[in-house]
Design brief:
heterodimer; A: 102 residues; alpha+beta; 5-stranded mixed β-sheet; 3 helices; 5 strands; 22% helix; B: 371 residues; mainly beta; 4-stranded antiparallel β-sheet; 30 strands
Chain lengths: 102, 371
């Protein structure tokens, strides 16, 4: 099974909650997908459980977006592979709070 | 030296206001959790330095925070509120079944006697209990599953369990209120529940004697008279002498009997306070005058209290959890507004002064009386 080190940029409120800087890195075993990356984030930073996706359904929160490589990946399947440059660590996965609230 | 600590939840953070017994000079600490909606903060009666806070946002969901040093530092706790078993459906606004979905925690109620026990009232309506200081939560699902749950319908603010009242003389007895289902009571610590809505009259529902469907805004009691309850309903101020088995209207001469909070004086079990609001459509006080109304007779006879409150061009609201009392010798009354003001009266409501003018919209106010 492959092991990837994935870079992730968190939105500001979640950096405060996790007490980290803008960018973190997490280790992902196997395929690098939205699901496995968020699994790894939640394992390393348990206080972020339930903030990026729902505890039970595992669906992305409505006002959270996943961007990478100048693309919006939010509506990709949870188990679809993320771009190779994210899996290789060359590009970060950006977790972004959507524009909302006027 | 005795003093007070006022825990204020707002749309964009939490604030802690402190003063000595005189309640004239105040220190303002905050914002804590800036940018987050702080629906409710409440301290443990067993350990006042233990404070729980409900933190949520439309982006990142629900968090629960706890401080064990009076609000200086905070720790994020378990935020998993999972309904027990198959969640099922309640009634949607259009009368169709709608799946139960967790949205947020409206109210946190620490136990009166056990340091690590705390209850959470959530939307969609359910009651959760933690016995480990918030490290984990379990639904007391007997409430949601007692039989009328599929008939519960959300009020304008959602299907929220917003009020939890613990009986100080009977640890097995708990009251809750849900908009817009009504009031419920357990006498066995939360395993089984009974709707307690007899005598409520709600023009918004066709059946005058409906068992559920009432939009109860708030319930309170005086600790010396735990069978006597006071209620501010969507419309009507109500009173019960028998633990909610029967309710009687005591709106009396109020200018309007719509409102959200209701509180009891700390030392006078028949002295109660409400803030009349013009209507459910207006959500501001009559005539642009912000007035608390006090009854010293447990209802029916009310007097307006406005000394020190704005008496012209005032169009704020006071939400259901945004009023509280302290237990100092001269009882203090506190409330916060959607305009960001928090007011205090240190003489039972006769005179008022603002503690702060310009906070974000105030969602909740809780007072701790410190030895």
């Amino acid at each position: 099974m492959t092991r990837a080190e994935v870079r992730v940029v968190l939105p500001s409120p979640l950096r405060v909650l996790a007490q980290v800087g803008a960018e973190i890195s997490v280790h992902v075993l196997g395929d690098v997908t939205q699901r496995t990356v968020v699994d790894a984030i939640e394992q390393r930073y348990p206080m972020l459980q339930g903030t990026i996706r729902d505890h039970v359904s595992k669906q992305r929160r409505a006002f959270v977006r996943f961007f990478a490589c100048q693309r919006d990946l939010s509506h990709e399947a949870l188990d679809a592979p993320l771009p190779a440059s994210v899996a290789s660590g060359d590009e970060p996965l950006l977790i972004v709070g959507a524009m909302a609230g006027g | 030296m005795p003093g007070v600590r006022v825990l204020v939840g707002t749309r964009k953070g939490a604030f802690i206001l402190t003063s000595d017994e005189a309640r004239k000079d105040w220190q303002v600490d905050g914002p804590h959790f800036p940018g987050w909606e702080m629906y409710h903060l409440k301290g443990s009666p067993v350990d006042p330095d233990r404070i729980y806070a409900s933190q949520s946002s439309g982006w990142f969901g629900q968090l629960i925070q706890r401080s064990d040093d009076g609000g200086k530092t905070w720790v994020a706790l378990d935020n998993k509120f999972e309904y027990d078993g198959i969640a099922g459906t309640h009634m949607w606004y259009d009368g169709t079944p709608h799946p139960w979905e967790f949205k947020r925690v409206w109210h946190l109620e620490p136990s009166l006697t056990e340091r690590d026990v705390v209850y959470a009232g959530v939307e969609d309506a359910a009651l959760f209990k933690s016995t480990d200081g918030g490290a984990s939560w379990r639904e007391l699902s007997g409430l949601r599953k007692h039989g009328t749950g599929p008939q519960w319908q959300p009020g304008a603010g959602g299907l929220c369990l917003h009020t939890i009242v613990l009986d100080p003389t009977n640890a097995q007895r708990i009251y809750v209120a849900i908009s817009a289902a009504g009031a419920f009571r357990t006498d066995d610590g939360g395993e089984t529940w009974t709707p307690i809505n007899k005598g409520l009259r709600s023009g918004e529902i066709p059946d005058r004697d409906a068992e559920v469907g009432h939009c109860v805004h708030r319930i309170t009691m005086h600790k010396s008279k735990p069978e006597r309850l006071f209620m501010q309903k969507h419309w009507d101020v109500m009173r019960s002498e028998n633990a909610g088995d029967q309710w009687t209207e005591v709106s009396g001469n109020l200018p309007t009997d719509f409102g959200f909070p209701i509180e009891v004086h700390a030392h006078e079990p028949e002295t109660i306070y409400v803030v009349p609001i013009t209507s459910d459509a207006h959500h501001f006080p009559p005539e642009g005058k912000l007035r608390v109304y006090r009854s010293r007779t447990g209802g029916n006879e009310w007097e307006a209290l406005g000394d020190g409150l704005p008496q012209q061009d005032c169009y704020v609201n006071v939400l259901r959890d945004a009023m509280s009392v302290d237990t100092l010798t001269s009882c203090g009354i506190y409330f916060g507004t959607t305009g960001g003001q928090v007011y205090v009266s240190s003489d039972s409501g006769d005179h008022w002064m603002p503690i702060v003018h310009d906070l974000p919209a105030v969602l909740s106010v809780e007072v701790q009386t410190l030895a």
